[in-house]
Every structure is written in structure tokens, then in C-alpha cells.
Amino acid sequence: WMENIVSSKIEPFYKGGKVQQYIFCTCGPRVNILQINTGKIIHSIEQDDQEDITSFSLSPDDEVLVTASRALLLKQWDWKQEKCTRSWRAIHNVPVASMTFDCTSTLLATGGCDGTIKLWDVVKQYCTHNLKGSSGVVHLVEFHPDISRLQLFSSSVDCGIRIWDLRTSKCICVLESHYSAVTSLAFSPDGQTLISSGRDKICSVWDLKKKAVKRTVPVYEAVEGVVLLPGKSDYSQMGVKGEGLHFVTAGSKGVLRVWDSSSARCVFTQMLPDAPALNTEEADLDPRSLMQLLPMPRSNRLVTVTAETWNYWACFSLLMKFVGYNDDILDVKFLGKDDTHIVVATNSSQLKVFELATNSCQILYGHTDSERTASPTFGKMTFIGRVHCVAQGSGHSNAVGSVACSRLKKAFLVSGSQDCTIKVWDLPDPLPDVGCDVMLMTARLTEKAHDKDVNSVTISPNDKLLASGSQDRTAKLWSLADMSLLGVFRGHSRGIWCVQFSPVDQVLATASADGSIKIWSIQDFSCLRTFEGHDASVLKVIFVSRGTQLVSSGSDGLVKLWTIKTNECVKTFDAHQDKVWALHASSKDDLMVTGSADSTITLWKECEMKQSKLQQELSNLLHEKKYLKALGIAISLDQPHTALRVIREIRQQEDGIQELEKTLLKLRQDQKESVLRYSVVWNTNSRSCLDAQAVLQVLLTHLIPEEILQYQGTRTHLEGLIPYTERHMQRIGRLLQASMFLDYMWQKILPNFPLLLSS
Fold it and tell me: Where in the cell is it found (predicted)?
């Protein structure tokens, strides 16, 4: 069927920190650089020590990137080449919480959690100032835009704004107005006025000549960002009149507001499209709350950041929305006439619709509970690619685990629930237009279907049959005309996660937590074939290649391709680090999408090949015992599962220990580094821990410590080995004790065995 190639990924790129005008954002130990028109990561800068980045700043000339990590190191990067050009100790005793460049890109200020501020000459590479006097964490530092003033503004947990004279290294004034953390500062073009925002739900307008508050603006929400209204565009349609100072705020209620600084009046409000309003009680905890507001001066545009997304605005119209973090991916489906979009369900209460060409995302609100809801909803997609809710049904007494829509015509849908029932819902005909009220659906049929949770429902291609799979270890076949039971499929030893009809044959595929996939005849309900190969639960299965092959995904993080006729697994895809809950093929069978609990969505291209050339080459190399080349291929493809297969093949030989030692020591340094990284993962599983320990024994015995410490992330890898190795040793110790007890009992019983037989 295919040589599967990862076409693209939608993966986590943002977990907090700053987003600069060129879309630089932090994700753990990495700074990701995104292309703004596609949302794709074009560069990724990663800390060698794998320590999380606590703060970073990009110079105004876009040339120098500086990062600070929990290891108390500052690093200067040539981000275009993804290369660290300089590294030095931060001098701070605790992590750096904030940093900023001056307008000349030569002076860098860092604010520490120790209450001190350091200034660094980036060109001459030395510390120029050490400013003391702040209370607690310095979470905000900003240079005055007029460099001739040589002033630095800072704020810490005491809620004051300190002004530092860099000529004397002294604090010349503390601006006191806020009663909670100051979150953002914005300077007027002439540098005479400062606007500060705080979580005390006010903005203060300061006269910097008099060092006094000119006006306090009540905003009625915790404000996380403030910027001056960008550019000299005509904003009269928004109520902006005159040339007075106007500023924009963003905060906990998830809206943008434009304020007149002279009258303290809100003249314009812009909500996120399709997002319901937040009330005051829930606002502070809602993921729609805006955490940052950043200007893009060159394009007169704004970027807003929430806990999950960043939004790109022009003239207060949302151009693009990108999701930086998806939580666990629970399901994904292609959407649109030509499969131009995918819709994603995660363990949050919103659905996300991604446009594949740009990665831009639309978030659908409506459900109230995370993961699953007790009411199915039905949406409609417009010709411009927007999805709107048009119908909703309520009736289940517990969470809905699966829904399926009729295939020939969008006439009805079926839902399966944790309340053990299946309901059939008639869809409105015609479907309401966008903008009309959401119609309420009523269940036409309800059936108590299983003894435990209904995990999966699917409708046959002719809309006449329904199959259901349950945690009670059975699958059932139903007539959709009256929900009469036609038969029961029994044979799995654990719960069934997925059921799927063949598009061409009268068979049903089931995927189970017992690690197997079965194909059943819907004529006599007999099991025709069983596929085994996953090391854990099989979570999803689909038919591909016009029903001649299966693709399955499991909680072992693997995706497998099976040929039904020969009953064999022809390829294993190793692209996820956690359970693969989501799996779907496009209508043309040329694309496949997978989603995992590792928050990554992977899009696969598929070619018409029964077995990939690379897989065949690997099999040939193993048969010819060319282990070094086989292991090299697995490492080059970054496929730990394939590398494990090679290691196991080597260890099964008569001289396996010597062969493994010879193979591993011939690897290049970067390949040894990869094998060490794989071993840490293998060591977490009792099925592969012996293989991991065999590899580790060779590497740790024959390589000098200095060489191992040069590997990227060695310290983290070795620390990750210790708890699992201790657990394996305890397990082996218990096994040894049990075997010794068995041996003791056998020695005591054996002499008396003839007497026992005679009696």
C-alpha cells in the first residue's frame, strides 16, 4: 500500500514565555522560530543541558538572540544558523525571570529572581551594572526608548515601578500606583508619558517629567498587556477621535479594548471570533484569557497570546490563530470537500479545526466538560472554511465516547455512551444556515447496548448496519432500521476500543486492549483473522488500500500497516512518544493523520507500495547479518522501535554479546548518542529493559566518561535511567527469591515423591 512519509506535523511549539514579532517562542528547553504565514517551525534552538528556558530576548535588529535557563547560564545565539556563539554565567544566584535589549541592540538587561538586575555589554562581553534594591522576583525590565536618557524601568513583587539612572547605577524614583503585579509598560512616542498595566484591574497613565500619575483608568479585568494604538491609520470607525493618546489592553476576559487616555473611556471592544463572553468569576482561570499583548511596529499589527494559542491581528480583525499546545490528542478527522482541514478533539473542552495549508486554527466552543460530553453536536462548514454548530442533542446520562454519521446522506447520526446505551439521532433537513439558532435534536431510538462503556460505534457503507464495541469485551451488530440485535462478536480477552466496517467486503475489524486486531464475518459472526504485534492496547484501526490492508495505532506509540491476505505486519511507524488515540485516512486514501497523547498531530503521505524499499532493505541486511548497516539505517530514520528490533536480532545469535559489542563500538559518535537516548526509553518498559541494559553495559564499559559527557543531554538521560533500573533490579530480586523458594520446595518434595504417588 504505501511507503509512509511524514508529510508534516502539528506539534507543541509554545508552553509559555515571550512571543516576539518574528514569532520566537519557548517550549521547555527550546526556542522555536515559526514562519508567520504557515505556522511551521523553520528553526529550533535547543539547550544542550535540556534545562528549561526561563527568559529570552531578541535584539531590535533581529540579529542576536539571548536565552537564560534554569542552569543559570546566558547563551547568545546566531538563530539563523541555529548555533550558540557564546555562553556565560548569569551571575544571578537564581534563574533569570526577565530580560530586554535597548534600542541599539548593544545593551542587555536581565532581571533575576534574586531581586537584582544586571546589565551586559553584548559587544564587549562584560557586565556593566549590578542594580540592587528590588524586592523579590524582578519580572519586568524595559529601557526608556530615548537612549540618551540612559534610564531603565523595572518592576518586582512590591508592585512599584523603579526608574534607574544608568549613569549613577541608582534608583532615582519609585512610581507607586498599583496594588498588584505590574504586567506591562508602554511609552508614548515622545517618551514623556508611560502607561502601566496591572493585575489590580487598572492602567495608570504617568507623566515622566513630574514622576506622577496623570490618570488612573479602571479596566475591570486583570490586565496582562498594554500597547499604544499602532500606526497613524484611521481608527474613526472604532470611535477613536482626535490625536490624543490611545492604548490597547488585553487581559483575563479574553477581549481587546481600546482606551482614550485623556478621558479614561473605552472606545472599542473586540472579542475573539466565535468565542462566548467570559464572566468575571471564571475569567481568571479560562484558557481564553489573554496572557500577553505584543505590538508588531513594522506591520502595524498585534499578537495576542493565551495559554494555548497566539492570534495575529490586523486592524483588530483576526487574520490567523495558531495553537501552540494541544494537550492529549484524543481523536482527529479530515474535514472539507477536498480534505483541506482536520478537526481535532483533545482533553480540553474545545474542538480545534486546522487548515492544513497554513496550520491556522479555529477553536469551536460549546461543550462544557473536558474530553467527552453527554450531548452530541453537529457542525456545518462554510465555503470559506469556517465551522459553525447547527444542531445539538441531549439525552445521555453519562459521557459520549463515540459518534458516527450516516454515510450515503447526512440524515442521521449515532452516539455511544458510558451510560451503556446507543442513541440514533435524526439530523435537521435541511441543515440550518450559519447564523441561525442551534437546533435541538431528539433521539429517535435508544438501546441499552452493552454491560459496560460503549467505546466505539460505526455505520456500514450502505447505512443499514451499525456495529458497536464496548469495554465488556464484545462487539455487536445492529440493524439501523429498528436497532434490533443481529449478532455478537466474542473472542477478545479485554475491552474493545474501536470497530470498523470494510469499505468493500462484508467484514468488521475490531481493535482491543488485549493487543490484538480481529476481522470478523458479519454473515456468521466468526473470527476470520487475528493480527498480533502491538505490545499494548490497540486503540484505533482503519481499512486502507480499498480494503486490502489495515492500519492500526496503539498505546505503545506505534502505527502499524497490515496486509490482510498474508496476515503480516509489513511496516511499523515510530513517530509518537505516547498513546496514539487518533487515526484517520483521507477520502482519496492518499493521506493519513495520527494524533497522540504526546500532543503531536502527524500527517502522512502514502504511496502505492506493498512494502517499502527501506523496510525490505532492512530485512535483507538482518538476514545477511549486516547488523552495523541495519542499525545505522534505523538510527538515520530516528526509529527507536526498528533499532530495538536490530538489537534483539543481534542478541539472539550464539555470540550475541560479542556481536553486540563489536557493532555498537563501530558506530559514529552521533549514532552512539542516539542509541543511548533510545536505551533510556527502552529501559522504561519491562519487555525491552534487558536489551537496554545490554546496550548500556557495552557503552558504559568501553567508553570513557569524558566521551559520554560530550553527548547531548547525557546528564538527563543517565538520571532517567536510575529509577527504572532500580525498579527492574527489585523485580529481578523478587523473581530470584521466588525461584529459590521453588527450588527449595522441589528439593523437599522430590525425596518423598514416590511415597506421595503410592498413597
Answer: Nucleus, Nucleolus
